[in-house]
Fold each of these.
Amino acid sequence: MKAVVFHAIGDIRLDEVSEPSIESETDAIVRLTSSAICGTDLHFIRGTMAGVEPGTILGHEGVGVIEALGDGVRNLEVGDRVVVPSTVACGYCSYCRAGYYAQCDNANPNGPGTAFYGGPKEAGGLNGMQAEKVRVPFANVNLVKLPDEVSDDEAILISDIFPTGYFGADLADIKPGHTVAVLGCGPVGQFTIASAKLLGAGRIFAIDQHEDRLAMARAQGAETVDFSREDPVETVKRLTGGVGVDAVIDAVGVDAQHAHDGPAAGKPAPGEAKDASPAARTDGPAWEAGDAPMQALAWAVEMVAKAGTVSIIGVYPPTDNLFPIGAAMNKNLTIRMGNCNHRKYVPMLVELVRSGQVVPTRILTQREPLAGVIDAYEAFDQRRPGWIKVELQPGHASAEGRNG
Ligand SMILES: NC(=O)c1ccc[n+]([C@@H]2O[C@H](COP(=O)([O-])OP(=O)(O)OC[C@H]3O[C@@H](n4cnc5c(N)ncnc54)[C@H](O)[C@@H]3O)[C@@H](O)[C@H]2O)c1
Ligand SMILES: [Zn+2]
Ligand SMILES: [Zn+2]
């Protein structure tokens, strides 16, 4: 079968690989009809989140049809249409039973951390879903059946980025009326804005430097700030009467940029890419790491109100020790963070979409057959067009699926 294979930092290819098979009685094999590219995949190729083994199939977003099931899976049938939550969980350890699926004791064969598809060896080294088929462990828990009313285009957004945005808003402890700031208006940031609205936020600030991403945030009702034209901390404080916001959600992660233009450019960038990630590629033009890995977090700590909450869903590598702890401590902040417990939210989000309460597909801007995947990756890396969420269609061999 065809799959996107990680060869080295800065080197991914569409290769012919062998098909997965059932290895344990709780496995399923899913024939994928949709996959997608996430900002997390960019961290791997830019070297800011190192440790993906050469030969690993990338991709942790998937929708498809069950092709084979082990004898231990009793709640699903061959032929069921399913969405695959990005992180893998056993469903029976104490963490899973408390909803901390991303800290499952059993799903990661290589250690204590989160297990997910198409990631570093420390995250389980499982093959991913930018492929025609995938093996899903603990399938009774890690597959969620889709109702007919939910399309592939909608469902692929519920595999990772919508639950992650919802998780970020949930960690931010948003109460009706709260003022919230979302740093980063990529696909995850857009769903964070949508989720903050669902939880009743009174005002939402959205901060980025790409005008089309900011326009999408405004279309959702957010108040936008372009950090290459204004100092985002000064602007958010001014527009909140000097108070700051109740909560900030970091939807940027380790590839954060410093402002290169405007008043914020005059301030020093906190940290350099190599400080957080020794393997970071710092010599572009393609797959170039962000130049200020702590920038989003530094702004978050500054623009949040005293005793406010900072919620971190942007991904940082285990090598990163740069958090501004002193400034946070002296404001009595609450800091919450982590890898999304996808399985906790996916069934609820499927139902929100099925019932028409949320229409997630405005976030999808580009569809590509798997054959066009490397071009799609490069476009996402360069944000060309700036506003982009790529859906891959493994069933399509030609370029007919292209949609802008
Ligand atoms: N916690 C989880 O489980 C989880 C799941 C999925 C994705 N993620 C992470 O979420 C983050 C966002 O993902 P994405 O797909 O939207 O990525 P993306 O790269 O498309 O978006 C990041 C956005 O942040 C903006 N940005 C850069 N520096 C900034 C700064 N200093 N302030 C404000 N904005 C800034 C960029 O311009 C870009 O628009 C990534 O770190 C990804 O790894 C986490
Ligand atoms: Zn992701
Ligand atoms: Zn578990």
Amino acid sequence: MDDPLRRLLTRWELQPPRFDAYDFRRPQAEFLYRLIDAAVLVPSTPVGTWDCADCGSVCRLIYVDQPGGGQRTFAACPRCGPMEVRSENLRRYEIDTGNLLDAVFRSYRLSIERLDPVGLWRVGRGKIADRSREVYFVRSCERGAVSTVCDVLGSHGKCCVFAPTRASSRTLSQQLSCVVIGLEDVIDWQDHAFLLDDDAINGRFGSLETLPKPTKSKPKRSTRAAAIEALRQELNAHIVAAADHAFDTEARTGTPVLLPRPTQAELAARINVSAPTLSRCMEDRSAPELRILWDAADDVYEVMKWRKLAAKNRR
Ligand SMILES: [Zn+2]
């Protein structure tokens, strides 16, 4: 994923989700200017203090009105004396969550509404995995908001919850019975617009609903498509085994233990392809579910979650 996009999503988890002059100095500030044009980033309170570039002291800011109108700003360094600070270096911008949700989820039927003061939002409805589903969004879920989210969403088993980052989606996923997706796994920035990867999103619901039977014989020479299918089956089978192991160890010891994920070299050997072919399969844009399965296999709570979803889907 593009780096500025990841930074935007990471910043969205913070309170306030703010950008200052430092962010605009980095390369690809153009991305942030686009977001300002789209009112996704809106002006925030200006910087209140300034760090002296020479000695590092925290300086008070002094605003001096100019005779012809306008204002100049000086940082009063206790050691080096006053120095002028350019006004563009004091500007700060904050993410307008409602507007960013609007820009990200424009392919859904939107009814954006803030449901609690911290970070739970209703987004609307979207057609996901052959079903119209309620879509919710949660940001900065580490800040004690998880229990509120659970109270509101506890009974919405078939809804889809998005969080900005993969890390927070995993935290939430452990608490909620519905599917939680980290936007960083499924979003791209193309032609000055956000683009959601519908296949990857559907894949979170679909992979275990269509669990294929294990193949009897390994293909000798695989085309890419055959290798992808074989890899999907291997990873699915591993997750099923890992879930068994996790529930079993949890029942015996109180703590679920993760069955080690096979390495990519081991997987390549199992499906009888070369290591480079395997990594090309993993990167293949037509098979985003492979990356999702691969990540899930490395997280004990994810594999347990997948089992619960699979059981629910069979009912
Ligand atoms: Zn100084």
